[in-house]
Amino acid sequence: MTKAELVEDVARAAELTKKDAERLVEIVFESIIETLNHGEKIELRGFGSFRVRERGARRGRNPKTGDPVNIPAKRVPYFKPGKELKELINEEGSPAASSSEASAAPDTSAGSDAGGDDGAGDNNPTPPIM
User: Fold this and answer.
1) Overall number of domains in the chain
2) How many Å apart are CA 23 and CA 56, to the nearest integer?
3) Could you tell me which residues come within 8 angstroms of residue 130 by beta carbon, excluding any fewer than 6 positions away?
4) Which of 4, 43, 95, 121 could pair covalently with 49 via S-S, beta carbons 3.0-4.6 A apart?
5) What is the CATH number of the domain that holds 63?
């Protein structure tokens, strides 16, 4: 969902104009950002909590050259989903739960190729190395 889609949903649900709904969404985001900037946490019961985590300075490597690089300390926002949100996401009837069940099913077609070891029909998504 994009911010524009969120604004449309808020406008429709609250029977507001899109302009008023957009301002409402902006106010909520600004409030969250301001609270996190003050080092406070935000707890929304049933949804989750927003916090700021401190990441210490460390040494890294430039992936292109391999040279060591100093990475400064920084603060990063973090969201931890609440118990109720996790339960709602993992309900049996949700589309995400049913698609993840299908993708979690074991692939039994890999051993069904009786035509030798030419690679045809073995459902391998990785292309051959040339």
Assistant:
1) 2
2) 36
3) none
4) 43
5) 4.10.520.10
Domain region containing 84: 50-98
Distance CA 122, CA 114 (A): 10
Residue 123 in contact with residue 109, Cβ under 8 Å? yes
- How far apart are the C-alpha atoms of 16 and 7, rounded to whole Å? 10
* Predicted pLDDT of residue 67: 96
Query: Is 77 part of any domain?
Result: yes
| pLDDT means over runs of 10, the chain (130 residues) | 95 95 96 95 95 95 95 95 94 63 51 46 51
Question: What end-to-end distance do the CA atoms of the chain give, in Å?
Answer: 40
119 falls within a domain: no
58, 85: one domain: yes
Cα-Cα-Cα-Cα dihedral sign, residues 28, 33, 38, 39: positive
